[in-house]
Amino acid sequence: MNKLSKTLSIALLSVTTLLSGFSFAATEDGSLEQIKKNGKLRVAVFSDKPPFGYVDREGQSQGYDIELAKALGKNLFGTEESVTFVLTEAQNRINVLDANKVDITLANFTVTPERSKQVDFAEPYMKVAIGLVTPEGAPITDLAQLDGKTVIVNKGTTAETYFEKNHPQVKLQKYDHNSEAFAALRDGRAVGLAHDNALLYAWANNNPDFVVSIQKIGPDDVIAPAVKKGNDSLLNWVNAQIEALQAEEFFHQAYDKAVRPFYGDKIDPDNIVIDQSNK
């Protein structure tokens, strides 16, 4: 082979390799067919939001969202081990879908009109509202008491959006991680912390010096799985799975396993769980 032929062969090989890589990347679209080919279901979950998504002392993901993820993986592949958990923060729940790093986001994702423009939400499986936790010795029981005061929120949450839109007179101290936010509350850096009431119930139950002094701020919301915008095959499959699991009372079972140990018997499960009886 002369030098010119050798050069052309190397160039052709490089182009072929490049095109092959592009073709592979193009098929990594998160569709149900592609997920089956990959042999695994990639799910975005929280690492620090017990009892819904957290990492235990053994480094394993646990929680209410994780129970759902395992059920989806088992129904798709026959085994819970087929699920790969990808840890995320609130502000990255959409980004990981858009970047094809995950197939489904199950990180306690509240449905909002703004988010629905960016992702496709499946059927909801949980009810939630914004709540406020404050020191038991200095409880805030009315939003008017927050005027000019500082409240802790997490970036990318409905609490952040709600206060910015409806209560601009309240100063917001923002954090990326739940652990940082609650540490700031314990340190007295703000008069309270606003977050999903479902999370606050569990946290206050384990921190008796604090109380969920306002249990509901703003409208009731729902939490649902999210898939990449336009991923109809996966969306339809998830919807069918949610409906089947609700009919089996799976979510009450998941509540008893993952949530009740954190809540005790103080909270009515029907205030959290969505199934066929309370849709």
UniProtKB/TrEMBL annotation:
SMART domains for this protein: PBPb
Organism taxonomic ancestry: Bacteria, Pseudomonadati, Pseudomonadota, Gammaproteobacteria, Cardiobacteriales
UniProt record, GO biological process: amino acid transport
Signal peptide positions on this chain: 1-25
InterPro entries cross-referenced by the UniProt entry: Bact_solute-bind_prot3 (IPR051455), SBP_3_CS (IPR018313), Solute-binding_3/MltF_N (IPR001638)
Protein name in the entry: ABC transporter substrate-binding protein
Coiled-coil positions: none
Annotated keywords: Signal, Transport
Similarity comment: family membership: Belongs to the bacterial solute-binding protein 3 family.
